[in-house]
Prior knowledge:
mainly beta
Amino acid sequence: MAHEAADGWFEPQDAEPRSWRVRRWAAPVALALSVAASIGAVQLLAGEPAASGTPDGAERKPRFLLSVGRMGHPAQGSGPEPWFQVRAIQQDRTNRLVDEVRPPPSAGQARELVAGPDGDFFAVSSRDRPCESRLYRFGLAGDGQVTGIEPLAGGVVPSRVAGLAISPDGDRIAYTTAPCDDGAQPSATLTVRDIESGDRRTWSTSGPTIIGGIVWADDNRTVGYTIGDVRPVGPSGTSRPGRTTGRDIRNVAVHALDTDGQLDTDGRGADLRGGRVLFRQPDGPGNVSTAVMAPDGRTGYGVLKKGEPPDTILFTFTEGNPMRVNGTIPGKSNTVQLVAVSIGEERPRYACLGGVDSLGRASTCGTTFAY
């Protein structure tokens, strides 16, 4: 049971630490949260399935590491920059290159790598001139060799694409889009696209907003996402149009959208804010850096930063109830915290979880899953 603290946050009277686990590989669901750090490569871990009849969990060990571009120092490779690499992870935790993939015709730079069900993998590539993105599907052979790269139906997307999430049945994908102009006002959109036909529907909302944490529920029709309001912040902490030195993200909320049911009369997506609200950022100090819906479509988990140096607060939430604090990692000055969090879900999320802003302005996506 939780009670409201004096500053407006909800604190637990009896913690349940076993509902949160910090693991070396954090499988099957992992979310890496980097504080004051930049991770250069977009990476994906492919793990071994659990033995038959055993729980699907931390005992799975990753076999392959997929990485956009070339891992390591440029001098370690020769020739043009690869689209992405596949490396086998050795028993001594070192890795060796097993495949280096060249970009398909007309593909831009690879931006995200995401695992789907049934051994499928997905890649997002984009270029700024012309502003466009392309989505591809491929497989991995038992030795890590990439097989069968093919573009998805539906053609080119005339914008940047980020936050890719694959439905559990592998039939649909969800993602957000944005113009290639970095100076454009941020806005939140959600597109759901049928993988085989390419048919799509798009939802949006008004005002300067960001969207992240895009995931599917087990029902294959509900999509969860976080949206937040963006306020430009000048040197003095006040808004200064044209002289923005940063962005303040406030009013973060997690919504659950019925993508089959919430449509306008003409069949287009309705407002993103019309989805069920599962979590809303409480009043008071603190910034939510992560908030993600769980596969049941009613609960979820998140991370917020509070204080200076900021404490890392892990929390869970349930629709219709206040957030519940599950643990706090004290902040330390001039240090980097890298936290891997999992909540014991029984299947991979098939999503690129990059925080509350999928287009992230510093997005690093990765996930662990069974292969």
